[in-house]
């Protein structure tokens, strides 16, 4: 059986249009619709840069078109070399000084924006999150709240009257990655043996999409980011659910047994059980997530089965191997995973 990945996740166009018209966060990334303070600052600089570059383009293209038309080849032109001009202080000064001024304006405005974003002060009740980049998924830790999840970052919406920004500490377990959610902030790299930081204060609830923005190997393109911005109440409910250990459903005892007798436990953690692996995503509340394989496919029972059967079919090169399970074992493991709500 082959699974059409892009049939499952690709065609969001009608929905994207509906969201676009409603003005909310979108199912496609859009640098021109910021929904946070850092996103807004970057958007303002990009408008200024575009305006300056547009003006330069109009002047250069205008002069070029004027010259092409005004001095075009005419039938009764004399076939002699035109007058040659050597050196003009005014012209040379103009094309040296003007670009320097333009570059200076851009440097100063950009530097001010970067320092405004980096040096912003945050309220003491800001949400602290640590994001660790792995080939090719995101580990998401909430140190103050005491749990770990993967790939889908939940944060509360931030009120302008009483802001509650999310402060991200960015780390990498292997190579350089880059965390980029265009509507919320600029790109920041995740580098091994180094802590980088970014923050955002999302002003509107919804799902914000992003992706790894630093080439990090085979599945760089399917290292997708979802930031889910909830109302404070919904966020608190989500946190309370995530803090619980995994459900121990008597219905899934057979699958549980298979899971704990295979190598699954070496890579995955399921809180409340003996599975404490750290190479792969925490599966304690797997079914609370919308996607599998860091956004590779939607998290449906059929795709979960296909994923466990052979992850290499859905995300070629990913670190999870085909476990060579029998159809019966596969069904049992999937039944168990489906209980991890
Ligand atoms: Cu991680 Cu590109």
In short:
The protein is an alpha+beta fold and 341 residues long. It is 38% helix and 18% strand.
Written description of the protein model:
The chain is of the alpha+beta class and 341 residues long. 38% of the residues lie in helices and 18% in strands. The strands form three sheets. The chain has a five-stranded mixed beta sheet. Helix 3 (37-70) runs antiparallel to helix 4 and helix 6 (253-261) crosses helix 10. Bound molecules: dinuclear copper ion. Dinuclear copper ion is lined by residues 133, 136, 177, 212, 214-216, 220, 223.
Task: Please give the structural blueprint.
Blueprint: H1 5-9, H2 13-22, H3 37-70, H4 89-118, E1 127-134, E2 137-142, E3 147-150, E4 152-156, E5 166-172, E6 177-180, E7 188-190, E8 196-200, E9 206-212, E10 224-230, H5 232-243, H6 253-261, H7 264-267, E11 291-292, E12 297-298, H8 301-309, H9 311-314, H10 327-338
Parallel strand pairs: 1-5, 4-10
Antiparallel strand pairs: 1-2, 2-3, 5-8, 6-7, 6-9, 9-10, 11-12
The structure holds dinuclear copper ion (CUA).
């Amino acid at each position: 059986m082959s699974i059409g990945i892009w049939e499952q996740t690709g065609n969001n166009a009608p929905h994207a249009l509906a969201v676009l018209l409603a003005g909310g966060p979108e199912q496609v990334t859009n640098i021109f619709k910021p929904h946070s303070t850092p996103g807004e600052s970057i958007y303002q600089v990009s408008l200024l840069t575009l305006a300056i570059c547009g003006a330069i383009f109009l002047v250069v293209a205008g002069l070029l078109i004027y010259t092409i038309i005004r001095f075009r080849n005419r039938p009764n032109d004399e076939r002699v070399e035109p007058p040659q001009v050597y050196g003009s202080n005014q012209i040379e000064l103009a094309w040296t000084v003007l670009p320097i001024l333009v570059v200076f304006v851009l440097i100063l405005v950009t530097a001010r924006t970067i320092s405004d974003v980096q040096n912003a002060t945050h309220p003491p009740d800001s949400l602290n999150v640590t994001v660790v980049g792995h080939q090719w998924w995101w580990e998401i830790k909430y140190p103050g709240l005491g749990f770990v999840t993967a790939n889908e970052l939940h944060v509360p919406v931030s009120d302008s009257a009483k802001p509650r920004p999310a402060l991200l500490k960015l780390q990498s377990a292997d190579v350089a990655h880059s965390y980029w959610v265009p509507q919320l902030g600029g790109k920041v790299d995740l580098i091994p043996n180094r802590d980088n930081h970014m923050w955002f204060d999302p002003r509107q609830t919804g799902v914000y999409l992003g992706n790894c923005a630093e080439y990090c190997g085979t599945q760089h393109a399917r290292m997708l980011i979802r930031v889910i911005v909830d109302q404070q109440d919904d966020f608190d409910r989500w946190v309370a659910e995530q803090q619980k250990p995994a459900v121990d459903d008597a219905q899934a005892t057979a699958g549980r047994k298979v899971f704990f007798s295979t190598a699954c436990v070496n890579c995955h953690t399921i809180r409340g059980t003996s599975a404490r692996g750290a190479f792969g995503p925490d599966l304690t509340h797997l079914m609370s997530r919308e996607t599998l394989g860091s956004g590779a496919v939607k998290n449906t029972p059929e795709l979960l089965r296909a994923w466990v059967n052979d992850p290499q079919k859905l995300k070629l090169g990913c670190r999870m191997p085909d476990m060579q399970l029998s159809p019966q074992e596969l069904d049992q493991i999937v039944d168990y995973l489906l209980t991890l709500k």
